[in-house]
Amino acid sequence: MSGSVPALELRGIEKRFGAVRANRAVSLTVVAGSVHGLIGENGAGKSTLMNVVYGFHPPDAGEIWVQGRRVEIGRSSDAIAAGIGMVHQHFMLVENFTVLENVLLGAEGGPRLAGGLARARPALEQLGRDYGLEVPLDAIAGQLPVGLQQRAEILKALYRGAQILILDEPTAVLTPQEADRLFGLLARLREQGKSVILVTHKLREIMAVTDRVTVMRQGAVVHETATADTSPPQLAEQMVGRSVLLQVNKPPARPGDALLQVDGLAVSDAFGVPRVKGVTFALRGGEITGIAGVAGNGQTELLEALAGIVAPAAGRIRLAGRDLDGLDPRARRHAGLAHVPEDRLKLGVVASFPAEDNAILGYQDRAEYNRGLLLDRGAIHAGCERKMAEYDVRPPQPGLRCSAFSGGNQQKLVLAREIGSAPRVLLVGQPTRGVDIGAIEFIHQRLVALRDAGAAVLVVSVELDEILGLADRILVMAGGEIVGDLARADATEERLGLMMAGIKADA
Ligand SMILES: Nc1ncnc2c1ncn2[C@@H]1O[C@H](COP(=O)(O)OP(=O)(O)OP(=O)(O)O)[C@@H](O)[C@H]1O
Ligand SMILES: [Mg+2]
Q1: What is the pLDDT confidence band of residue 223, given thresholds at 50, 70 and 90?
Q2: How far is the CA of 48 from the centre of ligand 1 (A)?
Q3: Is 394 in the pocket of ligand 1 (CB under 6 A)?
Q4: Distance, CA 54 to ligand 2 centroid (Å)?
Q5: Closest C-alpha among 403, 441, 470, 328 to residue 89
Q6: How far is it, in rounded angstroms, from Cα 236 to Cα 242?
Q7: What is the 3-state secondary structure (H, E, C) of 292-338?
Q8: Domain residue ranges in the chain
């Protein structure tokens, strides 16, 4: 560290939510012109800390210093005035406004908006060119792919003069290509003397792009180091307080009968564009089938059609011989087809409901949760407590509304619900998106255990490492088609990469 003034210094930040001490005397220094990594378990307090810096939560105690000057940050406008920008874990764009309107929201007053729009356009276009942040300024934000929405958020922060940019799990929703692009941007920001705080669960990213890294556990900073002086296993251990298996350990699969049979399945999107173009495959019990592919090649639509969220344009889906045509997700769950949606926060939970209601969502008709005509609240509560203990959902409070849990803990709750329903077939989209490495190890073990109990498991993941680690058999999707079907033993990263790029294997 040079003797220069830090870009940001936090001193003794405290933040409580009721009984939860989300931040405990947190001190952290971000060197000017550096990328600073922030890692820690789900619920460690990372988002809370960043929200304090950005003025979303007033701290209960502590000081924030920017460029050597103490600042009072009571609201986001104070943070922006101090040169702090933030892209949240869950995006904050107003979906039915254009990108340009979103960028200006809050920056310019209402009546001046029209004039502001005209003035801002050239400046934004210039910023876009300087940083490789091209975004269609007149597009409706909600209609853009997530990668572009994120770019719009970053552009917004830079336009407002951010010298310190906070990114909370920015790559959780990106394809590897988009992530590489983002990291290129971080390098440019650093060259310009700006500072970045990167919150992520991916140690690979920490190692690749950060200068220093801070580890949080249970609200407190437990470690800080130069990235060059640490390693993924060390960081993993500091995060969870024990050593973690970074690889999946599993016995060989013993595949049984085909449990889910998919024939000529075709799916079109809301605009009538074909996304899945007549795929045929079967999922066998006792086997984990992975679907590899660059995001946006039909995997999401395939998963949604199998789960009954969207109706296919053509084709047939049979579960142990029974045609599922016309059955909604709940009826499919009843038939033994469980589903962990990729976008769990949109499709997996009702944020305003307590955890215990979310823990039975889709399964509320089961005998175990009912007594006569009424829901058995006692059984539901106890069932949720059990799931929380098993999946280490924190805090273990079934009555707490879902939105009060950290991102990763919400995800664990959905996984607990679906894996815990003991399905015959489990469909999982991005099983470990947003969950910490300790929880990844656990979730992988649970998926393998479900397989070994005879279930068919389908895993869709954009993380090639995850597919290679988990799957016994790998289907590769490109352009809405299955372009490869390989046993795990025959799959190498290179071979899959070629197939994912749409280059068909020659046998
Ligand atoms: N609005 C809130 N009300 C009550 N509790 C909250 C609220 N926001 C966060 N918490 C609690 O504060 C703690 C820290 O949560 P935070 O979201 O900061 O974790 P995180 O480190 O970002 O985790 P993740 O990796 O899962 O995103 C958690 O126990 C969480 O349940
Ligand atoms: Mg978080």
Answers
A1: very high
A2: 6
A3: yes
A4: 14
A5: 403
A6: 8
A7: ECCCCCCHHHHHHHHHCCCCCCEEEEEECCEECCCCCHHHHHHCCEE
A8: 8-240, 256-336+423-507, 350-421
The atom of ligand 1 lying closest to the CA of 45 is 18
Average pLDDT of span 177-195: 91
Closest ligand 1 atom to residue 15 Cα is 12
Q: Is the CB of 405 under 6 A from ligand 1?
A: yes
- 468 within ligand 1 shell (Cβ under 6 A): no
User: What is the residue with the minimal CA distance to atom 18 of ligand 1?
Assistant: 45
Whether the CB-CB separation of 268 and 432 falls below 8 Å is answered with no
Asked whether the domain spanning 256-336+423-507 has the same topology as the one spanning 8-240, the reply is yes
Query: Is there an atom of ligand 1 within 6 Å of 46 CB?
Result: yes
Cis before 59 (ω within 30) = no
| CA 115 vs CA 120, 158, 196, 349: distances in Å | 9, 20, 31, 41
435 close to ligand 1 (CB < 6 Angstrom): no
- Residue predicted with more confidence, 184 or 116: 184
Task: Say yes or no: CB of residue 404 within 6 Å of ligand 1.
Answer: yes
Q: Rounded to whole angstroms, what are the CA distances from 365 to 306, 316, 331, 356, 421?
A: 21, 26, 10, 15, 12
From the CB of 170, is ligand 1 less than 6 Å away? no
How is domain 256-336+423-507 classified at the architecture level of CATH? 3-Layer(aba) Sandwich (3.40)
Q: Note the pLDDT tens digit of each residue in 394-443.
A: 999 999 999 999 988 998 999 999 999 999 999 999 988 888 988 888 89
CA of 20, nearest ligand number: 1
187 Cβ contact list (under 8 Å, min separation 6): 209
Residue having the nearest C-alpha atom to atom 17 of ligand 1: 406
- The CATH code belonging to domain 8-240 is 3.40.50.300
User: For residue 413, which of 358, 338, 354, 346 has the smallest C-alpha distance?
Assistant: 358
Which residue, 402, 429, 433, is CA-closest to 169?
433
Q: What pLDDT, on a 0 to 100 scale, did the predictor assign at position 112?
A: 53
For 345-392, the pLDDT digits (tens) are 778 888 899 999 999 998 988 888 999 888 999 999 999 999 999 999
Token pair belonging to 154: 């970053």
Q: Which of 28, 47, 49 to mutate to test the pocket of ligand 1 (most atoms within 8 A of CB)?
A: 47
Which residue's alpha carbon is nearest to atom 2 within ligand 1? 404
Q: Whole-model pTM?
A: 0.86
Q: Is 308 in the pocket of ligand 1 (CB under 6 A)?
A: no
Instruction: Assess contact for 261 and 317: CB atoms under 8 A.
Output: yes
> Would you place residue 214 in the very low, low, confident or very high pLDDT band (cuts 50, 70, 90)?
very high
Question: How many angstroms from the chain centroid is the CA of residue 236?
Answer: 19
Ligand 1, atom 16: nearest CA belongs to which residue?
45
Determine what percent of the chain is predicted with pLDDT higher than 90.
Answer: 69
Average pLDDT over residues 281-306: 94
